Amino acid sequence: MPAIRKIRRETSEISCCLKYLLFISNVLLWLAAIAILATGIWAWSEKDMFKNIAKLSSIALDPAFVMIIIGSIMSLLGFMGAVGSLRENTCLLAAYGIFLSILLIAEIGFCALAFVLKDKGWIKDQATEGLKAFIRHYREDADQQNLIDWIQEDWLQCCGIDGPKDWDSNNYFNCSSIAIGSREACGVPFSCCRRRPQELIKNKQCGYDVRKEGYGQELSKILYEKGCVQAGEEWIEHNLIIISTAVIFLMFFQILGICFAQNLRADIYTQKSKWH
């Protein structure tokens, strides 16, 4: 029996199932990351962000920049996991596990911070400042314009930060801009307008002049009067279970990736020890 057990230990091999499961999952991650990174770089080049340094003042709010950062992190992670598992490279697998661990710790810290500060208004203040920047630069950056239009029209069905009046902080929609000939003065973007029944093509001029005197109670039939901050809070409350489940699943797969990488490294070291 001891001899049989010894032979079994010596003929043990690296788990092909573990190796190729880690490889395939990280190849898919890497391909998705390349697509996100390429889209972000293309969007930046279209806006001449690489040449216009003045635009970098609001870089953190730029959707294209966010895509570049996310794509870069994901591609690096996918590369280390795919190559490390395929080539049985223990250094890359160790770096992959450490990188995943850092991301996991950062996510846990962010969730804990959000839970602690949710009643202190910090998150609401950050969202408010972000929306203020989006409103101010609405006509200056196509990506930010598309993002806030999507937030107002498709996601939260809201208008402004606390309501339509917040669009007064944009030079084009400010009521005083009537004097300089802005046709959008005292109005709001079309994304603030309620979609009419059976409306196939939305009227892009539906927000013109709606903040001028005379609309009165008719305004509620034309616009979303709820601010996006309040609408966002209500959306989170209604979808808290779904959000929590998604976060738990993400963390679970990260933990699984860390465990797979460490187990594969252990198998590789076991095989290398037999060569000596």
TrEMBL record:
The answer to whether keyword Cell inner membrane applies is no
The record ties this protein, via SUPFAM superfamilies, to: Tetraspanin
Matches recorded under Gene3D superfamilies: Tetraspanin (1.10.1450.10)
The entry's protein name is: Tetraspanin
Q: How does it sit in the membrane?
A: Multi-pass membrane protein
Q: Name one GO cellular component term.
A: plasma membrane
Q: Which UniProt keywords apply?
A: Disulfide bond, Membrane, Transmembrane, Transmembrane helix
> Membrane-spanning regions, if any?
20-44, 64-86, 93-117, 240-264
Gene for this chain: Dwil\GK14713
* Highest taxon in the source lineage: Eukaryota
Pfam families cross-referenced by the UniProt entry = Tetraspanin (PF00335)
Q: Where in the cell is it found?
A: Membrane
- Disulfide bridge map: 159-175
What's this protein's family per the entry? Belongs to the tetraspanin (TM4SF) family.
What InterPro entries does its record include? Tetraspanin/Peripherin, Tetraspanin_animals, Tetraspanin_EC2_sf
